[in-house]
Write a structure and sequence with these properties.
- The complex is a heterodimer of chains A (144) and B (354).
- Chain A is an all-alpha fold and 144 residues long.
- Chain A contains 3 helices and no strands.
- In chain A, helix 1 runs antiparallel to helix 2.
- Chain B is 46% helix and 16% strand.
- In chain B, helix 8 links the parallel strand 8 and strand 9.
- In chain B, helix 2 packs parallel to helix 10 and helix 3 packs parallel to helix 4.
- Chain B is elongated.
- The chains are: A mainly alpha (144), B alpha/beta (354).
- The interface between A and B is medium-sized, with 22 and 30 residues.
Chain lengths: 144, 354
């Protein structure tokens, strides 16, 4: 083989090697990018689940606090209890309204609204019971 | 009976017409309305008036009657409306709770929502596509607290009734923020739910009110509920003044002429007797639909007219309509509505006084 032919072959081998290296680098970069995107998406999904769970925990905690206040109200008459009841109710409401700004399906939104409406009814019934008891204690009357 | 050959031709022509019809429908923007009561008539009248004065742009209209104010109903209606081809905007819904609940469905679909009477503070954060024709309740709460302090001497006793939903909770919070409770002691604070009008429940609330002998009752709930409570409250409290929020303004005015409503004053965003134009409109509305209009009807009428003007100006998407509403009172003059000049803040709240 002539010198010119060897040079040409070397150039071809080097070019091919360069192309392979470039393709490999690009493929690796693409894989890394996709992996990172998947990781970001997974991390976002995980955060959304954790966030949703945190909101739900706050709602449950608020409702339990309200129920606890109502049960104590049967034994004592204390205006600070009403304040505690209202604060817990405000926390539940704030939690339910946080869901409003999350991306949810229609059935999920309907479920949230059902929970919200049930909680509104529960609060009104609980407050009525507390006021009734307070009235009965004040008047010396009987709670029916 | 058609012969087979003729039947094929007839079916072909019918299909072609249907296809052309479908194309026409998809090409034209569609405007939805999701409201209740006489507001639906007000929306219809806005469309008819625009057609009569030659400003009705080519569009499809979808009018849905809301049979109740529940949020779940509004979500279902919103889901059905956004599925309609070409939908760019919806005027609705009936109250704050339902407008808020439906807002995300519209925002996700990039459909503009214009709520005529929803005042809940939270609605300002509902999304970039959610606008309203009334200011938020933080302003109304301040106004109600000021009204109490202007009309009643210090020491006047206050009883508060509120509906336990987005509207009532938000308005109650803003009233209590603004009310000086040292000067105007709050002696009764009673929530109720919209769906519970049992006599026993109402009687208990009235007994409690009678027990604290208020000088003024603040009513932060809706007309139909006040209508149910009023006979029992009057029996228990006599003619104690009742000051109500704007949700009481949604009923036609003649209802308030009833004796039981004497002493009830409510917030209204529209003075129906403010000028000749409104008085003439009121007469025309009554002649056409057989009922006197309310402030909410005027706001609904204006909401539809401003959206028709936006579509007429060339807006064919929710995004373009959003830009149009945002430009009112800035890049272009405020829209001249029956209720006054219409322009919006950056959060989509109308600029308006009580």
């Amino acid at each position: 083989m002539s010198t010119a032919g060897r040079r040409s072959l070397r150039r071809r081998v080097l070019t091919l090697g360069g192309v392979v290296a470039l393709v490999t680098a690009l493929a690796l970069a693409a894989l890394l990018y996709l992996g990172s995107r998947q990781q970001t998406a997974m991390s976002a999904s995980t955060s959304a689940v954790i966030n949703g769970q945190r909101i739900a925990d706050n709602i449950i905690r608020g409702v339990m606090r309200q129920l606890a206040v109502v049960s104590i109200s049967t034994a004592q008459q204390d205006s600070s209890l009403q304040l505690q009841f209202n604060e817990a109710g405000a926390a539940v409401y704030a939690g339910l309204r946080q869901y409003l700004f999350l991306s949810l399906s229609i059935p999920e939104r309907l479920l949230i609204e059902r929970v919200k409406e049930e909680h509104q009814r529960l609060e009104v019934s609980a407050e009525r019971a507390m006021r009734r008891l307070r009235g009965a204690l004040t008047d010396g009357g009987v709670v029916d | 009976m058609l012969k087979p050959r003729r039947r094929e031709v007839f079916a072909g022509v019918a299909l072609l017409l249907a296809a052309l019809g479908a194309c026409a429908t998809a090409d034209r923007p569609a405007l939805g309305v999701a409201l209740s009561g006489s507001s639906v008539d007000a929306a219809r009248m806005a469309i008819l008036d625009a057609a009569a004065d030659g400003t009705l742009p080519p569009l499809d209209t979808l009018i849905r009657y809301e049979s109740g104010g529940e949020a779940s109903l509004a979500i279902r209606l919103a889901r059905d409306l956004v599925a309609a081809p070409g939908l760019v905007a919806v005027v609705g819904h009936s109250n704050s709770a339902s407008s808020l609940a439906a807002a995300q469905v519209y925002n996700e679909a990039h459909v503009l929502q214009l709520a005529p009477t929803s005042t809940a503070v939270l609605y300002s954060r509902a999304g970039a596509y959610s606008f309203r024709m009334v200011p938020p309740d933080d302003q109304q709460g301040k106004f109600l607290a000021e009204t109490v302090s202007l009309r009643f001497p210090e020491g006047a006793r206050v009883a508060l009734f509120y509906v336990n939903d987005d509207y009532g909770r938000g308005l109650r919070a803003s009233v209590l923020d603004a009310l000086n409770e040292d000067s105007y002691p709050l002696l009764l604070d009673v929530p109720h739910v919209e769906t519970d009008v049992r006599l026993g429940v109402i009687e208990q609330a009235a007994r409690e009110a009678s027990h604290v002998r208020p000088d003024v009752v603040l009513w932060l709930s809706r007309s139909q509920l006040l209508s149910a409570y009023l006979p029992v409250l009057r029996a228990a409290l006599g003619n104690t003044p009742i000051i109500a929020g704007d949700a009481v303004s949604t009923w036609p005015q003649h209802i308030y002429a009833d004796d039981r409503w004497a002493g009830v004053q409510h917030v209204d965003f529209v003075d129906l007797d403010a000028n000749d134009t409104l008085r003439a409109f009121s007469r025309r509305f009554e002649a056409k639909y057989g009922t006197r209009m309310s402030g909410a009807d005027v706001l609904t009428y204006d909401a539809v007219r401003v959206l028709l003007a936006g579509i007429g100006s060339g807006a064919t998407t929710g995004e373009q309509l959003r830009e149009y509403l945002g430009s009112l009172g800035r890049a272009r003059p405020a829209f001249n509505g029956l209720s006054g000049p219409i322009a919006f803040t950056d959060r989509g709240d109308v600029v308006r006084k009580h």
